[in-house]
Specification:
58% of the residues lie in helices and 9% in strands. The two termini are 27 Å apart. It is an alpha/beta fold. The protein folds into 3 domains: 83 residues, Four Helix Bundle (Hemerythrin (Met), subunit A), CATH 1.20.120.140; 197 residues, Rossmann fold; 137 residues, Signal recognition particle, SRP54 subunit, M-domain (434 Repressor (Amino-terminal Domain), Orthogonal Bundle). α1 runs antiparallel to α2 and α8 runs parallel beside α9. Bound molecules: guanosine-5'-diphosphate and magnesium ion. The site of guanosine-5'-diphosphate (GDP) has 19 residues, from α6.
């Protein structure tokens, strides 16, 4: 996400960063480039104007120009303004003091309501809550089926009745059911249309009035840029919304929707969707996002993801093996599986400062990891613990069994040996660095 914008802004700021002296005209010309970069990123033009003016006022001040590191100061100003533009701080979902908290998802067809409802339910479940999904898109049987399937997948109950019942009635019945079953969060998945129309708005209005949700969350597709912003604006004016879930962010190189949303609608982005998988929903943190845009990485999110997915016991065991030089191919396999659980490799590596840019243009895909997994699976138990016995004929057998080639097998063995060597070096400090492994191939 934000790749195109990120590249442009990094380029502009790099010119300023290294300089010991900045003149006013340097800043003015940088601002011109920033303005163009933002407009090309499809940010609303009023937002761009306001943004560059704010940066100008702060950057042209004496303190910046006369400071020892004027370029760095300008970078900080741009970072802080980007952060402010996206809402400043993280905006949480408000839960009712009297459960169940009812959350109503609205948005046009295909924006990602149903998928995001399931993703959010899964997050609630992980936090120890008892969510429930409610299918109110009653006009389309397929929509009910989609939600039911997702519910089964994440083991969250879905309240659905026959198509044809009024959404208000289903919503009210679902609230009763939630009370009876001790469900504390309900997510209402409402109908969407291709366009906003009166009939749909009336239906949503009725649900809002009768079922009385704690929050109405608009789900919008980031890839549609300013359309997403305009849709959010219309829904807010007509229905009133409390926040936004911006989906398909991983495919949006420009970022115009994310950057314009709050200025235009006055409503914060609470979550972003970053993939089709059920785990691909992240809380939206403006400060971290600003850092990502400026190529500073997002280590905090990375660590959080790791904490969510890495098995602590396994990690401790691994640590022990490393310190005793007993690291086998099986351990490597486990390690890589943990990494894979964290999501698409490309997304993860982009969060490491500086790495996102280096990787630009190279496709780092998960298939490399899957290949390694297959190769290790084709090894015998002895081979996994003692790579020295893997001779030419064994290599051929492993390649055949895993659907790879002998050079693939050789590469993995080389990487593994490299890793073992590296560990010797790190053993004293007890640190294992993923980055070094990835570079060792
Ligand atoms: P709805 O009509 O608003 O309920 O939209 P759906 O939830 O059915 O989603 C429409 C399509 O968008 C589906 O194919 C989803 O898998 C896809 N989708 C939803 N969120 C994301 C996301 O964050 N990233 C990507 N790549 N696809 C998404
Ligand atoms: Mg749907």
């Amino acid at each position: 996400m934000f790749e195109a914008l990120s590249e442009r802004l990094e380029g502009v700021l790099k010119k300023l960063k290294g300089r010991g002296l900045l003149r006013e005209e340097d800043i003015v010309s940088a601002l011109k480039e920033i303005k163009i970069a933002l407009l090309e990123a499809d940010v609303n033009f009023k937002v761009v104007k306001d943004f560059t003016e704010k940066v100008r006022v702060k950057a042209i001040g004496k303190e910046v120009i006369e400071s020892i590191t004027p370029g760095q100061q300008v970078v900080k100003i741009v970072h802080d303004e980007l952060c402010r533009l996206m809402g400043g701080g993280h905006s949480k979902i408000n839960l009712s003091p009297n459960p169940p908290t009812v959350l109503m998802f609205v948005g046009i067809h295909g924006s990602g309501k149903t998928t995001s409802a399931a993703k959010l339910a899964k997050r609630f479940k992980k936090d120890g809550r008892r969510p429930m999904l409610v299918a109110l898109d009653t006009a389309r049987p397929a929509a009910i089926e989609q939600l039911t399937t997702l519910g089964t997948q994440i083991d969250v109950p879905v309240y659905a009745t026959n198509p044809g019942d009024s959404p208000v009635k289903i919503g009210l019945d679902a609230v009763k059911q939630a009370h009876a079953q001790g469900r504390d969060v309900m997510i209402l998945d409402t109908a969407g249309r291709l366009h906003i129309d009166e009939q749909l708005m009336n239906e949503l209005d009725d649900i809002k009035r009768e079922v009385n949700p704690k929050e109405i969350l608009l789900v919008a597709d980031a890839m549609t840029g300013q359309d997403a912003v305009n849709i959010a604006k219309s829904f807010n004016e007509r229905l009133g919304i409390d926040g936004i879930i911006l989906t398909k962010m991983e495919g949006d190189a420009r970022g115009g929707a994310a950057l314009s949303m709050i200025s235009v609608t006055g409503k914060p982005i609470k979550f972003i969707g970053v993939g089709e998988k059920i785990d691909s929903l992240e809380p939206f943190h403006p400060d971290r996002m600003a850092s990502r845009i400026l190529g500073m990485g997002d280590v905090v999110t990375l660590v959080e993801k790791a904490q969510d997915t890495v098995d602590i016991n396994e990690a401790a065991q691994l640590q022990k093996k490393l310190s005793e030089d007993k690291f086998t191919f099986d351990d490597l396999k486990n390690q890589l599986n943990q990494i894979r659980k964290m999501g698409p490799l490309e997304n993860i590596l982009a969060m490491i400062p500086g790495l996102g840019k280096q990787l630009k243009g190279h496709s780092v895909d998960d298939r490399a990891l899957i290949k390694i997994d297959a190769i290790i699976n084709s090894m015998t138990k002895q081979e996994r613990t003692n790579y020295a016995i893997i001779n030419a004929s064994r290599k051929r057998r492993i390649a055949l069994g895993s659907g790879t080639t002998v050079p693939d097998v050789n590469r993995l063995i080389k990487q593994y040996i490299g890793m073992k060597k590296m560990m010797k070096t790190f053993r004293r400090s007890g640190k294992f660095k993923l980055g070094n492994f990835l570079n060792s191939g």
